[in-house]
Design brief:
It contains twelve helices and seven strands. By secondary structure, the chain is an alpha/beta fold. The structure holds uridine-5'-diphosphate and magnesium ion. Magnesium ion (MG) binds next to loops.
Length: 338
């Protein structure tokens, strides 16, 4: 059942019922069949590449003949580069090698910009995702969604390691609360996009963790599907406990960017006006006392008044600098039109 390809339940498929070779009869079907780019970010995955390719190839070639598999080598130091050089000989395989290890988000960015098909699918290269589920995601895109996010509902955790789920539960809960983008598993690597959606994402640092937030805030139609998750068979995870601190900083960034990228003064200006106004009122009050002959030089309130005034000016200035940057960014109207 798992192997069945839901996108073949078209009218043409029904006509050809019982004929397994329907994929070869492509005269009218290619119009229905989407073209697919599969993007794999790869960092030190020498043992995983062949099993990954062997698992992916039959599934994707059963959906469409118009596909490409893109490996972005994120500066691997093991035998990954040599293996990919061999694979590059296949015409459906593209390999891009980053100058150094730049992180998964940058690897995805390069893969997305180089992808040339209608639908882009991403998975990790460690076979923790199941390529057999690709048709599930493709079906959702064919139904009209711009973006499909995987949901590792029953995430694999090592025995006695249930605590490892806590950070991801925490981040998913917090991200949902702060961003109002409604998916369960923001960082699930198994995702599908209409090509232009993936190409519009800003991906650097660890920003891949919040892709659904970006997509949701761009106004695209998104959904999620439950996907499997398996233990890593070979190699090791590339992300240690530092991911928690980095995750918090990236959440602040994404919250700020989606809310205020185009109006930075509104983020800083409000704080600036409130602190500045408080400082001004206190300054005024202390000024009146001084005119009436009271000594104010040693009062802690004076320190607070000066601090609030300076903070107010600084916040407003930061907001204005933000406005200057935003003002100089070229905007693409096509990216705003549905
Ligand atoms: N990866 C990458 N660059 C990095 C770290 C990881 O391209 O700097 C790739 C890695 O090869 C894998 C995916 O990103 O395909 C996810 O990495 P990993 O499995 O280590 O993360 P985890 O599943 O533990 O979150
Ligand atoms: Mg992994």
């Amino acid at each position: 059942m798992e192997n069945q390809n839901p996108i073949f339940t078209s009218k043409q498929e029904q006509k050809e019922k019982g004929n397994n070779k329907s994929i070869k009869n492509e005269s009218h079907k290619t119009k229905l069949m989407p073209s697919i780019s599969i993007v794999f970010p790869v960092y030190n995955e020498e043992e995983n590449i062949f099993p990954l390719l062997n698992a992916t190839l039959p599934v994707v070639s059963a959906i469409t003949k118009d596909f490409e598999i893109i490996f972005v080598d994120d500066g691997s130091k093991d035998k990954t580069p040599q293996i990919l050089i061999q694979l590059k000989k296949e015409k459906y395989i593209k390999v891009f090698t980053l100058k150094k290890n730049m992180g998964k988000a940058t690897a995805l960015y390069v893969g997305f910009q180089k992808a040339s098909k209608d639908i882009i699918i991403t998975m990790d290269s460690d076979l923790q995702d199941d390529p057999k589920e690709i048709p599930l995601l493709v079906t959702k895109i064919n139904e009209g969604y711009d973006f499909v996010n995987g949901w590792k509902k029953n995430k694999h955790v090592e025995k006695g390691d249930k605590l490892k789920r806590l950070p991801s539960l925490f981040f998913n809960g917090l991200t949902h609360m702060l961003t109002k983008v409604n998916v369960h598993d923001y960082n699930c690597p198994f995702k599908a996009y209409k090509s232009h959606v993936a190409k519009e994402l800003f991906l650097y640092g660890d920003m891949h963790r919040y892709i659904p937030v970006q997509v949701g805030n761009m106004g695209y139609k998104y959904t999620e599907v439950v996907v499997s998750n398996y233990p890593r068979r070979f190699g090791v995870t590339k992300y240690g406990s530092s991911r928690i601190l980095r995750g918090v900083m990236d959440l602040i960034t994404i919250k700020y960017l989606v809310g205020y990228k185009n109006r930075p003064l509104h983020a800083f200006g409000a704080i600036g006006i409130i602190t500045g106004a408080l400082g001004f009122i206190l300054d005024l009050y202390l000024g009146v006392l001084w005119i009436l002959g009271q000594g104010i030089g040693s009062r802690p309130l004076l320190m607070l008044a000066i601090l609030l005034s300076i903070m107010g000016m600084q916040f407003i200035s930061i907001g204005l600098i933000g406005e200057m940057i935003t003002n100089n960014v070229t905007r693409d109207p096509d990216a705003l039109i549905k």
